[in-house]
Amino acid sequence: MSEAPPITLYRLQACPFCERVVRVLDEYDLDYRSRFVEPLHSRRNVVKRVSGKRTVPAIVDENTGVTMSESANIVDYLHATYGGEA
Description:
36% of the residues lie in helices and 21% in strands. The protein has 86 residues and is of the alpha+beta class. The protein has a four-stranded mixed β-sheet, with helices on both faces. A hairpin with a 4-residue loop joins strand 3 and strand 4. It is globular, with a radius of gyration of 12 Å. The mean pLDDT is 94.
């Protein structure tokens, strides 16, 4: 039985900010699970429960216990945590 990946990315289809995060996850060859959310902002309750906001992308990293949103913050976090430049 395979374990769920430690990183979950909440995202929208064809969202450029989400794709920016996906590129960095792929660049570092990180195992992650995508959860596609409702396009309608008011219906994104799953993201709100996780991150406190309804914005995507949002990421949950079980490796470090970090939950965050905003693509720039997520990209900075991924570089600092997994980029070997920390």
